[in-house]
Structures are given as structure tokens and as C-alpha cells.
Amino acid sequence: MSAPMMSMKCLCKVCGTPLSRIKYRLNLVRRYVSNPWRDAKSTETNVKVGQSSLKISTGKLARFSDGAAVVELGNTSVLVTAVSKTKTTPASFLPLTVDYRQKAAAGGRIPTNYIRRELGASEKEILTGRVIDRSLRPLFPKGYFYETQLICNLLAVDGVNDPDVLSINAASAALSLSDIPWNGPVGAVRVGYIDDEVVINPTRRQLALSTLNLIITGSDKKKVVMLEGSAENILQQDFLKAIKEGVKETQNIIREIQNLQKRYGQPKREFIPAVGCDEEITEAVKSVAETRIKEVLEDFTHDKISRDRALFDIKSDMKEMFKESYPDTESYKIADCYDTVVKDVFRTLILDNGKRCDGRGLTNLRDIKCSVDMFKTLHGSALFQRGQTQVLCTVTLDSLQSALRLDPMSILTGDLKEKNFMLHYEFPPYATNETGKPGGVGRREIGHGALAEKGLRPIIPTNYPFTIRLTSEVLESNGSSSMASVCGGSLALMDAGVPVSEAAAGVAIGLVTRSSPENPNEIQDYKILTDLLGIEDYMGDMDFKLAGTRKGITAIQADIKLSGLPLKIVVEAVLQAIEAKSYIIGIMNTTIPRSRSERKEWGPVTEKLNIPIAKRSRFIGIGGYNLRKLTNDTGVQVTTIDESNFQIYAPNNEAMAEAKEMIEEFLKDEREPELEFGAIYTGTITEIRETGLMVQLHPNLQPVYLHNSQLDQRKIKHPSVLGFEVGQEIQVKYFGRDPTNGKIRISRKVLHSIPTSIMKNLAPKS
After folding, report:
1. How large is the C-alpha radius of gyration of the chain?
2. pLDDT tens digits, residue range 438-477?
3. What PROSITE patterns does the entry give (predicted)?
């Protein structure tokens, strides 16, 4: 720094530190000292949820943060900290970041990667972070655009209680105790359904028996903020019963957090809301552009692209028109005012006139077209089109060795060890007429793919002899591409000959509300929309996705933009979605009513092979040489089922036939000599090991292992003490084969104590 610039700064005469930095540090100390929750002295409280007790504590850990809380269930503990900046940066949304991390130490493990440290977030961590974010974001006050970060740190996991629901409650407590403006708290529970009974916060063992795995986040007055879950074709009435019971249990958690907040919570900081639209400019834009906007939104000949372009042209005209009238106003502020008018007009047309911008009624679906067997060489393929949302799904069948094996922490905090069915969702930029880097896998792609996978997993047969990879590539997107992936994926699975139990479909339900003038949180009027468009999702208040079969529900995800929805509206949305889902399945069944009875000509084949235990070593080869040769030459993969049974996977029938010929050659080999139990044979030492010898009894037999304990009556530590050398001949007695692994059992020490009556020599004469 130059001397003139240094002289401009006010420095402390004692230490030379800039006074601005000293002032900043004093403010930090002042905030720390005046923070009531930091004086809580490790206050904790217990709340009964279902049959278990949830412990919430604060005031001991991470006290430099704006708010922190620890929630424990059983021996699983989660710490969540909340920090929000006091200065805002220009933004049109809340920059909220939720980082959920599963430390390996919490489960008593060491990371299995090369450097043995936690690296990037796993799929499980990303999905849990999304669930937490969706549970909290709707309750931040309007106009609060200050950068906020929540870090969820898994302290301990017992392998019985999952930490995701605990993280939501800990985040709710941390925000409530902090001075960060937030209209919480919320409470969250996991709901299971076992033997016709609702189970709150089931353990992992109970979840394995449950037909439902649903996370419910609720706010006060029994409102629903977020839903996320999967089910095994649960019936409608059982599902609604589970939601009602779950919302009821969340109220206990909310009341306990409110009690903590009253005792130790900080006063919420004052903030300057983001500058809203100028009322004068908004009224001016409305008077000039409202009629043109209505014409565009009521012109049902428009599609997504033409409608967006027409609205954009009006926006451009408004910017030019008001540039002279309001020369001191930035163009982006005029654009914001215009967007506000468009949103008001759009919502008014739906609420007052029941009109949607594409001409459909509130419960009507867009036109649906389905086709399968798109490309002959693929194992399975389907194209699903709903309006201007188009999804191409492909199925690949591979060996069981291709199953996705999860990392140890994901196993501890989930219910799967490996996945033989996986769905990968892709959203290239051209799907929305944009440019960008293709092939990226972001949080959105992972979230949408996981939801579609949940919707299809219950129809996949158990113990299927292949690993299934289903890819869903969105070619056009105008809303609800994840639910289109469920429909297209179901068709592609049936086209591939996967014996699914029945077809599955999904649909998105939207909501437009009007609040009471006296109470903004009270809904005065609302309309529920079936089969959501992209613009309806953007300008509406809810994106409620539901997937299932004709029989029941398999997956659900509700993104609610309000501070909570009454149960009445949630029930109506579920009933409307179930009706639409059944209609879609009826259309899909006209394309392909059931799975193909036989796989395609280009499809893979698999067979089970039984190898006698005695021939197992010859089949595998020394060091697995035969199996490697089999894979390299034919592309066939062999998976071990048990000691004598193997599964053979071949990419096609020709490869399978070639592999069978090679296996016959492996097993044909020259005839093995028939050894007589109790007989004495002369063999040749082929290898000397630390713990024994390898003895060749016959050229057509694999060398047999002779342990040190069977070499001599005396106890020896190494064969060299007896003077053995490679190539030396020794006599051993044969005791048959081990019934468990088929290995030959021989002994030398018995020859020194028991007279022999049978003397034979199988070694070839020189």
C-alpha cells in the first residue's frame, strides 16, 4: 500500500491496527455477550414424539454462531448452526445455503477414499440438505434477502435412528433461538405404516417392515410445510391417515421449541426489506400493459416459447416507454414492476375466471402421447410426451456386479446397502431453449432423479437377476419433468421385459391462493391445478408431485411456498392427483399394457450354473485366471451366489453360447484319478510356505495344501526345520475332501504313528 493511502486510514496509536477493524471486532464481542441463548448453560428439554423422546439442547456448542441447537434421538445426535449476514447484497431471492455433512467419525468409521478424509457431498447428503432447505425457506419473511447459512453436523449415529428428521428440528430450533428474522418454528417427524398402524419416527428395523417412509414438516395450527417420502403402493385412505397423524405429532415439537425461544431466544434483528416495486410505477405499468398481458395469457394458441417471447416483448416496450417518464429509475426496477403486474394478472385469471393460460380447465391434463421400442439395439426405451414436456427413457440391463454399492455412512443412515435399480435424470440446457454446459449433475438433477426412482422402485421385482439402470433425458420441459420420468420409465421397463408388478405414473399438482387482507397468513380463496405448467409452478404457491400405480401411492414430494397449508387443501390435492394418475395409466396401457414376456433380441441373458465343490477351483482357475479369461474373451461376467452356485451374465445369446463352450473346456480337463480314502500316496513338493507345503499328487490334480500341523508329530513353525526342499518327494495319507469347500485333506504325521497297509504311488515314473 502506498504512503498516501496509508495516511488516509485511522490507526490505533498503541498497536497500529486500523480503527475500523477494531470497531468490527468490538461489535462481534458485543453481539456475543448480549446473546441470551449463549447464557443458557447447556439447557436441554425433552419432548415426547410417538413412542420415543426427542431431546433438544442449546447453549453449549458453537456459541459464536447466531444460533445453534443439538437434537438427539436414541444415540443419534445432530448439531445445526445458523449464521446470517447483517449486510445484504443485491439479490431477488433469499440466498439460503444448507450444508448437511455426515462425518465418518460419527459412525465410528474412517473414510474409504484415497486420502481418508471427507470429500464432496454424497447423494444422501445432497438429498437431506434439500429436504431441510424446503422445510425452512417458506418461513423467512418477505424481502429478507440476506445471505444465510445453516451447517448440519452429524455428531453421532447409532444405526437405529436416522438423522435427517433430527436435522430439520435442530435447524428449526437454531433459527428460532437466533436473532435471524424467521417466522418459525417448524417440527418434523418421520411416519411409517406397519400392520395397519401409523408409527411415528420408526427405527431402521421398523422401516424395513413399513409400507411408508414419509417425512412431514409442519408449522403451528396444524399446517403442512413440506412432504417427502416413498411408499409400497400404500392405499389412499392409509396415506391420508398417516399425514394427519404426522402433522399432529409435529405440534408437540413446535410447542417445545417455542418454550425454549421464550426463555432463551434473542429478539429478532431489524432488517431493511429488499426494495419492492414502486407503487407509482407499478400502477403506471398496470394501466398501460394490463390489457396486452391479458391478451397474451388468454390466447390459448400460444405455447411455452411463443408466450414467453410475447411477454418479453411487452416488457421491453415498458422499459423504453418509462425510460423517459422515470429517467432516474433503473431499468431492472421497471422490469420488476412489470413482473409483479404479470403475476397479479396471471393469478387473477385463475382465481376469478378459472382460466389457465393454455385453455385447460383446472383439473384437465395436457395431451399425452406414448411410444416404446424407440431404438432396436437398446434393451428398453420409451418416449413420453405430456404437452410440451418430453422425456426419453432408456433401460440398460447389466450383471449383478454392476450394482451400486453405497459408502459405509450412507448405509448407516439409510436402508440400502446396494442398489440394483438406479434412475439417472438428465436436464440438458436445450430442453428450455437455453445454452449451457451439458452433462452436469447438480443438486436439482439428483433431487428429481431420486424422486422418480422412489416412484418406480416399488414395482421392480425383488431378486431380479440383472442390475437395472434407467436414464431419463428431458428433451423438452414445460413443467413436471420428474413425473414424466416416472411415466416414461415405467414404459421403458415394460419394453425391456422387466416383470414390473404394474404400470406407474406421476403428476404434479399446483395451487394459487389469495390471502386475507387482514391476515396475510390466512388463505381466503384458492384454486388447485392438475398437471402443472412451468409458468404455473413459477407464479403459483405449490408444486405437489405424486406418483403411484392404480392400486396405491409410491412417492410424494410437496414444495410449498407459503408458510404452511391447511390439511384440507393437502387432502384435496392428494385426491386430485390420484384421479389424474389413474387417467394417465389408462393412456399408457394402450401403448403397452404389460411387460414383454421375452427380452429383446439385443437384450442380455443370464443363467445359473451349479459347479460341484470339488471342481470349483478348476472352474475359477489359479488366482481367478479362468474367470478373467472368460470376461476378456466373451464379455460374460460371473457372479458368485454361494459355494457351488454361480450366475452368468452375457450381453447376448452368442456370448452366452461361447462362454458355455469355454466353461466346458475348463471343467473337461483330463480325468482326475480316483483317490482311495485311507490310502498312502507319494507326492512332489511344489512350494514351501510359511505355514505349510504345496504337494502335487498327480499332474491332473491341483497342488494340495499340507499344513505344518500335519507334517510331523512334533510341533514345528516352518517346514524348513524338517529339511524339505522344492521337488522333493514325500508320502502322505489321503482323508477325502472337506465337505464345506471340497478341498483335499492329506496328512504326513499320521504315517509316523499308524502302520500302513496300502501303499500306492500316483506320481508318474520318470
Report:
1. 34
2. 877 888 999 999 999 999 999 999 889 899 999 999 999 9
3. KH_TYPE_1, S1
